[in-house]
Amino acid sequence: MEAVCACGTVVLELSDEPLAQVYCHCDDCQRAHGAAYVPRAIFPRSAVSVRCGETREWLNRTRTMVICSACGSHLYGEQDGSPFRGVNASLLPAGRFTPSAHFHCLYAVAPALDALPHYRDFPAEYGGTGKLIGW
Ligand SMILES: [Zn+2]
Ligand SMILES: [Zn+2]
Q1: Which of 8, 85, 86, 124 has its CA 20 to 30 A from that of 22?
Q2: How does pLDDT run across 28-84, given as a tens digit for each residue?
Q3: How far is it, in rounded angstroms, from Cα 79 to Cα 81?
């Protein structure tokens, strides 16, 4: 599967299926995207590579953000030493974003009312508390 930035310059090669697809409500995402929450596809680090196009990096507090040099689209983010990369799921091919949960809802600016689980941070299998919140 590929992910293509908004201007078409950068193509990400995604060599595996995502481990999880979620909406992220964290305040790092809010600041970087100007959005209440964003669609994320979490891949093993080794499954995400830049096939073509020039990218730039910047540090969003503790997370390295990788963007397209031409249009500035956020491509993916990662924590130092993390085995995961969080890809901007808005760039996946149509129909490939199938979210299963909301993460980091303690930062939510407004309730997201749907039938998915709403984690206070994130599930225990990824190192979170696994706690759910009610709005
Ligand atoms: Zn671009
Ligand atoms: Zn986030």
Answers
A1: 8
A2: 999 999 999 999 999 999 999 999 999 999 999 999 999 999 999 999 999 989 999
A3: 6
Note the ligand closest to the C-alpha atom of 27: 2
81-108 residue pLDDT tens = 999 999 999 999 999 999 999 999 999 9
Domain spans of the chain? Answer: 2-99
Beta-bridge mates of residue 85: 43
How far does the centroid of ligand 2 lie from the alpha carbon of residue 27, in Å?
Answer: 6
Note whether 24 and 87 are within 8 A (CB).
Answer: no
Ligand nearest to the CA of 72: 1
CA of 93 to the centre of ligand 2 (A): 21
Closest CA to 74 of 128, 124, 28, 127: 28
For the chain, first and last CA: distance in Å?
35
Query: What ligand is nearest to the CA atom of residue 8?
Result: 1
Please, what CATH class does the domain formed by 2-99 belong to? mainly beta
